[in-house]
Amino acid sequence: MPRRPRVWFPGAMYHITARGNRRSKIFYDDKDRLMYLELLEDARSYFPFYLHSYCLMPNHIHLQLETINHHPKEIMKKLHTRYAIYFNHRYHLVGHVFQGRYGAKLIVTPDYFLDVSRYIHLNPLEAKMVTAPENYKWSSYSAYITKQTNPHITTEKILSYFPHPQKEHYRKFVEQTDMERFNILNKQGTDPHFIKALKQ
């Protein structure tokens, strides 16, 4: 059966994921990760987009990406084709580097937009690779909670949902325990001020 076309419109936002073929590593060292980010910027020069958060795990990636005038398939084809060429050349391999086509979940609500950023930034902690999410060098989290800047992302849209001090409130939102989040959800239910409750 032919693949169903992905929903896209100018300004559409996605949680994009891609995994190594047969769950193999796609990054062996920092040189690989730096190359991926370099190629991401090169793809952006052809097909402009906004990146709100990211995480480069050893065998998969997460990108929270907002399109402008180009379908994500153009962006990801440019990025992953070039990375696969680099990767296979460096490690003397042939064949697919990524497993199937990338995943792209459309983000259509503010609460999902915030939850995606939280999920992405907690990925290394959930995988028990670090004891605190800010200790993982290859995600965008530090730029959200410290004075450190990250040239690959824009933090304005996510932080705009939070009162001042924005970074402190964002950290609280990300690092709340599951029970704390459950209590907030239980109190708010379907209240339209759900996101505001998460920020306080």
Textual characterization of the structure:
With 200 residues, the chain is of the alpha+beta class. It has one domain: 2-Layer Sandwich (Alpha-Beta Plaits). 45% of the residues lie in helices and 14% in strands. The chain has helices spanning 30-46, 72-91, 110-126, 141-145, 156-159, 166-175, 178-188, 194-199; strands at residues 13-19, 49-56, 60-67, 103-107. It has a four-stranded antiparallel β-sheet. The termini are far apart.
The Cα radius of gyration reads 17 Å
As a percent range, the share of strand residues is 5-15%
Q: Helix and strand string, N-terminal first?
A: EHEEHEHHHHHH
Mean pLDDT over all positions: 90
The CATH architecture category equals 2-Layer Sandwich
Total separate domains: 1
Q: Could you name the CATH class?
A: Alpha Beta
The largest sheet, given as strand count, sense and whether it forms a barrel, is: 4 strands, antiparallel
Q: Roughly how much helix do the residues carry, as a percent range?
A: 40-55%
CATH topology: Alpha-Beta Plaits
